[in-house]
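hi!! sorry for the late reply, been swamped w classes. u asked for the two structures so here they r. pasted raw, havent cleaned anything up. first the sequence of the first protein and right below it the tokens
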Amino acid sequence: MKRKVLSFIALSLLAAACHPAKQPTLAPETIYQEPGVSVITSFFNNRQQTISTLYGNAEALKAARGDSNMVAGAVYRLITWKQKGNPLWFGGNINGAVKTIESIQVSGDGVTHYALVSGVATGAPAERTKFVLGLKASVFP
């Protein structure tokens, strides 16, 4: 009798462990994809509850690593998301819904063109351009 009960418990535990594990899925609003751009730097503002990432084309990335961001043909995209709690990591924040998308292009004669692609402006175009062009590239090993 004892052997039957132990066998039943062992088989029950074995059967309970044989279901596929749940895989976490990323929320679709956390991903920004645009062909031909790379991450230059990222930062967060806990006071405003935002996370921002600066993307750029090859010219912008090269310029951000150097002394001057005024390289002809450089294209910058600053994406700002609202923060939301990470459901898989207690106390961590991840990207939520996109708050703003800002674009800056440097023309051949060194003139910058600012455009607010979506969202609400957080400052004057000249002020935002100066801020974005002042950001330096993160150092990746």
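now the second protein. again sequence first, tokens right under
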Amino acid sequence: MTAPRRAVVTGIGVLAPNGVGTDDFWKATRAGVCVLGPVTREGCTHLPLRIAGEVHGFDVEAAVEGRYLVQTDRFTHYAMAAADLALEDAGLGPGPDAPFTVGVVTAAGSGGGEFGQRELQNLWGQGPHFVGPYQSIAWFYAASTGQISIRGGFKGPCAVVASDEAGGLDALAHAARTVRRGTDTVVVGAAEAPLAPYSMVCQLGYRELSLSADPERAYLPFAAEACGFAPAEGGAMFVVEDETSARRRGTRIRAVLAGHGATFTGASRWADSRYGLAHAIRGALAEAHCAPDEIDVVFADALGVPEADRAEALALADALGEHAAHVPVTAPKAGTGRAYCGAPMLDTAAAVLAMEQGLVPPTPNVTDICHDLDLVTGFARSADLRTALVLSRGLMGSNAALVLRRGPDATSPDKE
């Protein structure tokens, strides 16, 4: 009998407010650096949203060819650049020998709002002849999937997941299923660019959004002073492969996508998210054949809203039992902001790196923890990390959980 195909992570590409590339991202993440700051995007500085996580130091013209730049929004630029980094990390490149064996899956929460706003302004200000032909595709949720697949010559199964912020983890699960069904390689992830005038005005309708003007107080998950979340741009892409195919190529296996669970409990119904998230965690544990006490670290959703934070802490207690009070919990996104679908992708990247390095990164800025959690704050904590749990909830009601196992080829933990 043929053994089931196992989905493994062989490449990671990160484009985040605290670093471009995994090295810079991990250095800042493990140090607990907070990079939240005043919003500086053109047309946004007068809006009530004051603090966000912006990507700096990204040379888009060096990363993306001109013919793609004119067709695409900033969120696709980020995704394409992160995909290049992930492919390089995995030892793969564009123009594969067997293009139908490589697929692409991305998640998107807002699409290309900046591109769309510009073209609509041209329409109403100058007329239809001033609207470019790419308006029809650049704003679309599937734009990143399409452009990554076209640019790379990837002709395998492609998809876009639009299931709220938790769609980031759902995209990884979709990639794992695609691999198990016979596709050798899937480029998967999410990147967002919500810091544009139209997009920001839409976000102002979220009561969970923090309007604080203090970067160190704007996003304090699990703290008594929690006042909402600070948004962010950026995200991460991964190369997910069939383990046998990856070993045949001789590439490093960085992590195993072991289990996933997803539920839906309704928009802003944070008390109900306790039960939905707990059910998702149990589903992920069951698929991974993982006992609750095997979880070595939790990367929390960490919304920064008291009711939502309480529900998440209770969900962990419901799903993990007594172990929930002792397992290290962290929320590095408190220092970078929540990049919507890109947020759980960055948490997943951090989880893989944490398992490789034997370090739980801290939750920046938080000191007064008001929940029964072992929240890691201040400094990174050394630990033998074999299994990680990543959680995500969306503002519209989706809940997701992902269990990751440390890769068999992971480097020895560096605890310096």
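hope this helps!! also noticed smth abt the second:
Residues 257-406 form a domain with the Peroxisomal Thiolase; Chain A, domain 1 fold (CATH 3.40.47.10).
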